[in-house]
Specification:
Blueprint lengths: L4 E5 L3 H12 L3 E6 L6 H8 L5 E2 L3 H6 L4 H9 L2 H10 L4 E3 L4 E4 L5 H14 L3 E4 L2 E5 L3 E6 L2 E6 L2 E4 L16 H5 L5 E7 L3 E3 L12 E8 L4 E8 L3 E3 L1 H11 L5 E3 L6 H10 L3 H7 L4 H10 L2 H5 L1 H9 L1 E2 L2 E4 L7 E6 L16 E3 L13 H20 L1
Parallel strand pairs: 1-2, 1-10, 2-6, 10-20
Antiparallel strand pairs: 3-5, 4-5, 7-8, 8-9, 11-19, 12-15, 12-18, 13-14, 13-16, 14-15, 16-17
Helix pairs in contact: 1-6, 1-14, 4-14, 9-10, 9-13
The structure holds flavin-adenine dinucleotide.
The site of flavin-adenine dinucleotide has 40 residues, from helix 1, strand 2, helix 2, strand 7 and helix 14.
Length: 388
């Protein structure tokens, strides 16, 4: 006989993991989602290389998160636990060269989702799609479905409503006011894991799509290594995403185009060449970087080998903006972390739990987002189990 019942709103990775743990412990679980099919954003993430988690050593891994509550959840259910779970449902994974963990080559994102959903259905889960949560109170969840309002009662509720980007996937952030009206402290959504829009970038548009490998993006506080991609409006790439928080906090952002060389050796190479342009080619800087340096320095400074070397090592980015929230990989904002306890339970509504990207925490791409989501789902489910 089934034990207590849990209504889970959302069908992203956070929701699916919470449901998994509850069903494995004989709870009755009903998933709701406003979309016709589940986990649309999870599938979008799959389109660009399905980076499910990361192989990084745990202490470094935890440094990726800005929230102690999420860190604690990741310690309880870490990257290996998630890989073992995926293996249990028939999805083997491999570690890519950068430490990112992907499903084995040939396994499509939809197959990962299908295997997970089949496992949940096998354990007794029900999925109610096209159910839009439009209100809730301590006792009931109210959904609008096909023009009708339907109320559901459960012993516990888990909200896993996602962030506020890629609204086409259902993660539209429209739920925020519903929580604010109930006195639950929320934070305005902002772009995270976003490209930078740059001032005076028009003359570099012809380089859109070109990459700049092995560079360092840094602020006064932190540095990130990796590959940048030029776009029509500025730059994208993992080091840019990882440095986003420093831009949001008002720090200047720089690029070091030659992180493995010091200023002196760069200057010497430039001095050995007939002119600066030849010297930059000798340094094996890509055409886009050479064009960028030419645009940024006046003619006299461009020929001054010391100034040019310093600029290669510390090229200040004139960042005007992050990309519009709709386009970004993830958002910060949502439910304030102070509104939940470290079991992801809402302090104001003790039957209700909030998990995943709808909470105001941040992490870079590279598998840390999905891992943070599934770990939060795991923690909330275990808390419900221990309450029952
Ligand atoms: C282009 C792109 C690439 C990405 N790549 C990666 C990657 O490689 N690795 C990584 O770790 N992360 C990646 N991410 C981020 C990752 O997909 C998200 O962080 C993750 O899906 C969030 O999971 P979640 O369960 O919190 O919510 P979501 O997956 O956002 O799910 C929320 C669900 O709630 C439903 N919902 C919302 N409001 C309501 C309502 N009122 N009523 C009913 N249902 C509602 C939505 O329909 C949705 O299905 C990527 C994201 C994008 C956009």
């Amino acid at each position: 006989m089934k034990m207590k019942s849990v209504g889970i709103v959302g069908t992203g990775p956070a929701a699916l993991m919470a449901g998994t743990i509850l069903l494995e412990n004989d709870f009755k679980v009903v998933f709701f989602d406003q979309k016709k099919t589940p986990a649309r954003k999870f599938l979008v993430a799959g389109n660009g290389g399905f980076n499910l988690t990361n192989d990084e050593e745990i202490s470094m891994f935890l440094n990726r998160y800005n929230s102690d509550i999420i860190k604690k959840a990741v310690v309880s259910f870490d990257n290996n636990d998630f890989r073992n779970f995926l293996s249990k449902i028939g999805i083997e994974t491999f570690i890519g060269s950068s430490g990112k963990i992907f499903p084995l080559k040939g396994i499509k994102p939809i197959e990962v989702l299908k295997a997970w959903q089949e496992y949940l259905i096998h354990l007794g889960a029900t999925f109610k799609m096209e159910h839009f949560l439009n209100d809730f109170n301590e006792d009931e969840l109210f959904f609008e479905s096909k023009g009708t309002i339907i109320a559901y009662k459960f012993d516990y509720y888990v909200f896993a409503l996602g962030g506020n980007s890629w609204s086409i996937t259902g993660s539209d952030g429209n739920w925020l006011n519903m929580f604010v009206e109930k006195g639950i402290e929320c934070v305005k959504f902002e772009s995270s894991n976003s490209g930078f829009e740059l001032l005076n970038h028009d003359s570099l548009k012809e380089f859109a799509g070109k990459s700049i490998k092995n560079c360092k993006v840094f602020s006064d506080n932190d540095e990130k290594f990796g590959e940048l991609v030029m776009t029509e409006y500025g730059i994208e790439g993992p080091p840019v995403y990882a440095i986003n928080p420093y831009f949001r906090n008002g720090h200047s952002i720089y690029i070091d185009f030659k992180p493995r060389m010091n200023i002196e050796s760069i200057e010497q190479k430039l001095l050995n060449a007939r002119n600066s342009s030849e010297g930059l080619r000798d340094l094996k800087l890509p055409k886009v970087v050479i064009a960028w340096l030419k645009l940024s320095l006046n003619k006299v400074d461009f020929q001054n080998k010391r100034i040019l070397s310093e600029t290669i090592k510390k090229f200040e980015l004139n960042v005007t903006n992050l990309r519009p929230i709709e386009e970004v990989i993830s958002t910060i904002g949502g439910i304030n972390m102070n509104s939940i306890n470290d079991s992801f339970q809402l302090k104001k509504l003790t039957k209700a739990f909030c998990i995943g990207e709808m909470l105001d925490w941040d992490a870079p791409t590279g598998g840390y987002l999905i891992q943070g989501c599934v770990s939060s789902g795991h923690a909330a489910a275990n808390s419900i189990i221990s309450h029952s």
